[in-house]
Amino acid sequence: MKDCNLCGKCCIKYGDGGLSATPEEIEMWEVFQPQIYKYVRDGKIWNNPETGEKLKQCPFLKSMVIPNKNNSSHQKKYTCDIYLDRPEDCRHYPTSISEMIRDKCEMIETVDLENPKQAQIKLDILMSDSRPPLR
Fold it and tell me: What InterPro entries does UniProt report for this protein, alphabetically (predicted)?
């Protein structure tokens, strides 16, 4: 399994309101992170602060263009402006190899596809500091 290359596929796919935040996260944002909380409406995240309408993309996903060293083309990379305060849904992703395959995650390698059980073990270790322990 490769390291994350900041392709942004996961944030682009799920950042349009398909995510949720816990009531505790929302309360924390209200008190300590008002710049995040202003995008919350009725317990739902990523709404336009002025209109209340659902945004098509997470407002904290930022793109940058990186020159490719090998040729004249550029690559688009993505970062999260609230990485340390991101919702649990974001912290827990990816949860499974099948999810990564479905979402065309660029961390997957051929060896992972050949042995998905071993790849899942690697993923669980990699994500152990981001998600709750498996029961």
Answer: Puta_zinc/iron-chelating_dom (IPR005358)
